[in-house]
Amino acid sequence: MTDFVLQTQGLTKEFRGFTAVSDVALQVERGSIHALIGPNGAGKTTCFNLLTKFLEPTRGTIRFNGQDITREKPAQIARRGIIRSFQISAVFPHLTLLENVRLGLQRGVGTTFKFWKSESSLSVLDGRAMHFLEQVGLEDAAHELAVNLPYGRKRALEIATTLAMDPEVMLLDEPTQGMGHEDVDKVAALIKRVSAGRTILMVEHNMAVVSTIADKITVLQRGSVLAEGPYAEVSRNAQVMEAYMGSAEAALGGAH
After folding, report:
1. Which of 3.40.50.150, 3.40.640.10, 3.40.50.300, 3.40.50.1820 is the CATH number of 1-81+170-179+198-256?
2. pLDDT tens figures, 119-149
3. Which of 14, 118, 167, 208 could be 58's S-S partner, Cβ–Cβ 3.0 to 4.6 Å?
4. What residue segments make up the domains of the chain, in order of their start?
5. What is the DSSP string of 145-208?
6. Is 58 left (phi over 0), alpha (psi -120 to 50) or beta?
């Protein structure tokens, strides 16, 4: 029997008569990399906002490990281990890389709000923080200020901080957006590497990334599921090709 860690049924979000997400049934298999793709305005980020409860669904249910979490608050969702990143890099620019990751670790040891405590009391977390920096290849810059990092390495730092919060499911929103080709390849390889023993649900526009690392793809169009399956199957779907007219269609066909 397939083990689904995250499931939705009939997930719908309406804004004053406009339906942004319509009757979405999503099944994310434990330990997989699941990509959510679709043209601009397809409802991908709205789906993420519903899953993490930044938005309340109009209708439908969300289940995590079989439990109904539809009415839970964002903080409860995060405590369950559903941790998301955003389209823009969300790091603290004037803290070092080590300090950024250490903030993620504080959630797990109950010192999250004790900012008045001396810095030395947090040094016990440095070893684990370095471990996560090593996982994303940033150990050489541990004492550098985050503001000085190039964009691709900032996204790597964000992934390290997300890992520090011990996620059961990582939701990555456009992790390669705005990157050059070299950074895209590095971040894709990084996501694949850190996915071991974890579940990743990602919104991604870059079909080369999706074709390389995703186990399963859900295609949204106008808020509804258009197609679902492995990349080889989805990329040959005539409706998907039509939805991705132009350059994106070419990307779908050429990213093998």
Report:
1. 3.40.50.300
2. 555 677 899 999 999 999 999 999 999 999 9
3. 14
4. 1-81+170-179+198-256, 88-166
5. BGGGS-HHHHHHHHHHHHHHT--SEEEEESTTTT--HHHHHHHHHHHHHHTTTSEEEEE---HH
6. alpha
